[in-house]
Amino acid sequence: MPVFDLFSIGHSNIPAERFVAMLRAAGANAIADVRSTPASRYFPHFAAKNLMARLAAEGMAYLPYGDTLGGRPRDPTLYRDGIADYEAMARQKEFAAALERLSADAARHRICLMCAEREPLDCHRALLVARALAERGLAVGHILHDGTIEPHAATERRLVALCGDDADLFVTLQRERLAAAYRRRARAVAFRAKPSRTIIAAEAR
Predict the structure, then answer these.
(1) What is the DSSP string of 148-186?
(2) What is the pTM of this model?
(3) 162-202, pLDDT tens digit by residue?
(4) Dihedral over alpha carbons 11, 17, 22, 25 (to 10 degrees)
(5) CA gap 204, 161 in Å, rounded
(6) Interatomic CA distance for residues 36 and 25, integer angstroms
(7) What φ, ψ does residue 34 adopt, rounded to 5°?
(8) How far lies 85's CA from each of 38, 64, 93, in Å?
């Protein structure tokens, strides 16, 4: 059975009891919340305050990381054509510092990254954060909603297959093909910023 340094999960619509049971089954005892906005309109048990209280009652820790590892950057320069640019975000000093802090927390806890999207390939927790952790030599396991844990390397294989062989016909090296697949998927699912009033006004002229 693979040994993981960290896990990840998308809370989606999981009932609170099931969510805690999935964490326990994986051996996780802390949540690193990487949501830029740690709230849930339809599932209030995943709002930060409520989740923190529930985890504390279960003897688990809640670690907020949304300000530095969230998928919706505040800096407008971290958007490309209005879409969050994961590659640019990964180059930020604040992002690197947050990964160092996360690695230190992982030495004290069995951490599970948490965001909202059910599917890892629909979420920055896999396409940005887990990718960066894997590049640093950490083993990440994605907890899927059927309870299985998918190694990040297997998630990457699904990513390449999802993009298809015709995604980049002239890319031959495996690393470059994987990077191209990450880039293409991120462009498809990353957060899209609403156009500013200034841009709207300029386009209306």
Answers:
(1) -EEEHHHHHHHHHHHH-TTS-TT--SHHHHHHHHHHHHH
(2) 0.90
(3) 887 554 545 556 888 899 999 999 999 999 998 763 343 33
(4) 160
(5) 41
(6) 27
(7) -105, 25
(8) 21, 22, 15
